[in-house]
Write a structure and sequence with these properties.
This protein has 12 helices and no strands. By secondary structure, it is mostly helical. It folds into 2 domains: about 70 residues, Rna Polymerase Sigma Factor, Chain: A, CATH 1.10.1740; about 140 residues, Butyryl-CoA Dehydrogenase, subunit A, domain 3.
Length: about 240
């Protein structure tokens, strides 16, 4: 790991960790839409590895392996966040969907059904489901990052908050847990299978008895419900 002068041998470390970059890229790609290329993830992860080499400070106590793996994964997630797949019209419809869900939940005192949301948007059910498919592009990130980015649909270019404190600490964590619990059973099961059991889209579809594209639609709708709940004013204070 070190040269005769006691410095980190960067070439040796790059050679050693490049297989780890590929492993992380493969593990992430299997959970992403087919439009995400493995080579793009590997390229981003390699840049993260190079950044780790330049920034690592052994005096901070963390091992290089831990630091490098965090930066490799972080660089891949940054690459996914930087892709603004959503046209302006789709972002506008996504905001309208979130607002409709929030309005209907307040009106009914329960999670609205698909047909009710479509009617509120003055859309046919097939048109609404196409909107779900369109807004789901690129939204398969690890859960906390996904919800953080999803608070404003399409807001993909903001810097990531490493601590995720805005959404997963204290009261907001409790609100997020409550919002997940309030999801319809099918969507709650889908989220659990994907994020907790770490099944891929095809496997989730097999459990639910639906196609992969339908899983994507359910995923997008669940996110809309969660965003609507998290936008509601807190009852405390």
């Amino acid at each position: 790991m070190y040269t005769a002068k006691g410095k980190i041998d960067q070439h040796e470390l790059i050679t050693q960790y490049l297989p780890q970059v590929r492993r992380q890229a493969l593990a992430l790609q299997v959970k992403l839409p087919a439009s995400v290329e493995l080579d793009d993830l590997i390229q981003a992860g390699t840049l993260g590895l190079l950044e780790a080499l330049g920034r690592f400070d052994a005096s901070q106590g963390a091992s290089f392996a831990t630091f490098a793996n965090q930066r490799i994964r972080g660089a891949m997630l940054d690459e996914l966040r930087s892709r603004d797949w959503l046209p302006r019209s789709v972002r506008r419809h996504a905001r309208a969907m979130d607002e409709a869900i929030q309005r209907l939940e307040q009106q009914f005192g329960r999670a609205p059904e698909e047909r009710e949301i479509a009617a509120a948007l003055e859309m046919e059910l097939t048109e609404y489901r196409q909107l779900l498919s369109d807004t789901n592009n690129g939204q398969f990130l690890p859960f906390e990052e996904l919800i953080q980015d999803g608070i404003e649909p399409g807001a993909a270019n903001r810097p990531a908050d490493p601590s995720l404190s805005a959404l997963v600490d204290g009261e907001q964590r409790e609100r997020l847990v409550a919002a997940i619990e309030a999801l319809p059973e099918r969507e709650k099961l889908m989220m659990a299978l994907y994020y907790q059991e770490e099944l891929n889209l095809k496997e989730v579809g097999a459990v639910l008895g639906v196609s992969e594209s339908r899983v994507c639609q359910l995923h997008s709708q669940a996110l809309g419900r969660l965003r609507a709940r998290l936008h509601e004013p807190s009852n405390t204070g």
